[in-house]
Write a structure and sequence with these properties.
Blueprint: H1 2-51, H2 61-66, H3 68-81, E1 84-92, E2 99-106, E3 117-124, E4 132-140, E5 143-148, E6 154-164, E7 168-178, E8 184-187
Antiparallel strand pairs: 1-2, 1-8, 2-5, 3-4, 3-6, 4-5, 6-7
């Protein structure tokens, strides 16, 4: 009889201990799962913040800020020339995935400014870390052009430099919006 009472007594304690143990494991697992979920979300946020190329500081931004006085002097010398420029671009070539960009430069009297060395620094606003610098060829007096990897539509930042000797250095910075169709933009 002792065995039967002992078995029934043990059977009545097991469900309570078993339920308490399962409950403790369940809530402990829920707490640990939330902590792991928080770590995973934090890791994903860190990865997005540091790995997304659209979230970037433009290269040389800090260096240019430190040399702001030199930058202003360069702009002032460029403005004193009285030169003006107009930017034009065409359709994207389906074969090369590039588009022609041309810049016309005229002096203060409206005459083409030819015989200079032209360079262009550009990047898409969505990819500020991908800055490209290239030289432009003079196609005719005052018209400088190149085929560039600018297939993506949207806002592009361009910095155009044209120098003729040491005394004549023109510089122009402009944001252009390349849309569905070729557009003519004017830079000052």
């Amino acid at each position: 009889m002792d065995q039967r009472n002992h078995q029934s007594h043990t059977a009545s304690e097991d469900p309570e201990k078993s339920w308490a143990t399962r409950s403790a494991w369940l809530w402990g697992t829920v707490v640990v799962a939330f902590l792991i979920l928080q770590l995973v979300i934090g890791g994903l946020a860190f990865n997005l913040a540091t790995g997304d190329p659209s979230v970037a500081v433009v290269p040389d931004y800090h260096e240019r800020a430190l040399n702001w006085d030199d930058e202003l002097a360069r702009r002032k010398r460029s403005d004193q020339l009285g030169w003006k420029s107009a930017v034009r671009w065409g359709d994207t070539s389906s074969e090369t995935n590039r588009r022609e960009l041309a810049i016309d430069v005229v002096d203060s009297d409206g005459n083409p400014v030819g015989g200079g060395e032209a360079s262009l620094r550009f990047y898409h606003h969505a990819r500020g870390v991908d800055v490209t610098t290239t030289t432009l060829q003079e196609l005719s007096p005052g018209k400088y052009a190149a085929e560039l990897p600018m297939a993506k539509q949207g806002l592009w930042e361009i910095e155009f430099s044209l120098s003729r000797g040491q005394d004549e250095a023109y510089w122009c910075q402009q944001t252009i919006n390349i849309g569905d169709e070729p557009v003519v933009g004017a830079a000052e």
